[in-house]
Amino acid sequence: MQVGDSDAATVPNPAGVRRPDGLRRVAMSKHDFEGWTISVLKSPILPSNCYCDVLDGENTKGIVLETGQSWDSVLSKTDAFKCQVCRYGEGLELKHLPEMVFPDNLLHLEYNASGFVLEFNTLDAMKLMSTTDTHSVRVAMSEPWQASKVEMGLPKDILHDFNWTFTTEYKGTLKERGNNSYKSEPLFRVETNTSDKLNLEKLMQKEQILFYDELTLFEDELHDNGISNCSVKIRVMPSGFFILLRYYLRVDHVMGKVCDTRIHFEKGNQYFLRQYQCREESFKNLGTLDPQTFSDINILYNHLPIRTEIIDKIFIT
Fold first, then answer.
1. Number of structural domains, the chain?
2. pTM for this predicted structure
3. CA pair distance 71, 63, nearest whole angstrom
4. Per-residue b/e over 184-220, b at no fewer than 16 CB within 10 Å?
5. What tens digit of pLDDT does each residue of 285-304 get?
6. 55 lies in which domain range?
7. Alpha-carbon gap, residue 110 to 40, rounded angstroms
8. What domain of life does the native source organism fall in (predicted)?
9. Contact 111, 77 (CB under 8 A)
10. Domain annotation covers residue 102
């Protein structure tokens, strides 16, 4: 694929290979920017049933698997034979998964000089979901929170023992390419709670968009009682790149919550800033707003007070 080509290439189903729902495609696009290689993978939602039986060496050799890797580059042969249904089942301790999980959706940025990787993937986001109900919300709005779950028809024995809103505090994944065991020093260093601020003036300037994409990692409509959604988008400009990872939760008649992770890299720097900001409010305290506001995140966002904010400075080598 040519550098900078944002048209996704699809991988057809090999002749004679049965795939769930008849066909699964992994779409890929890449863009190079100032020593970074930016890769985006997209795929359909997670199937309901295991399909490990179709992932054998003869059927998958030379094609792209659900991990977005070719047969020869898969981490291990054992993993290669595991479908995403099994990988997610084994990798998570959740009793229930969101209605829509996009297991292969991935935003991957690699700093070529060292092999440092900044990544946003569905599995890591879901690993940070609590296996129990979100305590802080339950305490703050106990009656409407529990009443909503009863109205949803959830069994009494699970009203308290799983995170039915699929709340995650995922901020992205920082890692090294491969093992890189030969490295004597880490490829990145995180300075937590830095006094530096995002360069909002720079971000508000009109610039040419060199590359843009967005992905949904997971989504659930909470049995028609709201929405839980995690998505990520990136835009690359001549001056740098900006990433927004957003977790959005709305429980109808109960509360609204938006947790944003903003990452800004400016060309020429050996670091980038990561801002994590969480806004939350009960609808009881937003009673003066037009009900239409609650269903429009762009309007609701400005009415939610900031509860948590921290900025990290991440140095790369």
1. 1
2. 0.81
3. 7
4. eeebbeeeeebeeeeeeeebeeeeeebbebebbbbbb
5. 987 888 777 888 988 999 99
6. 20-316
7. 12
8. Eukaryota
9. no
10. yes
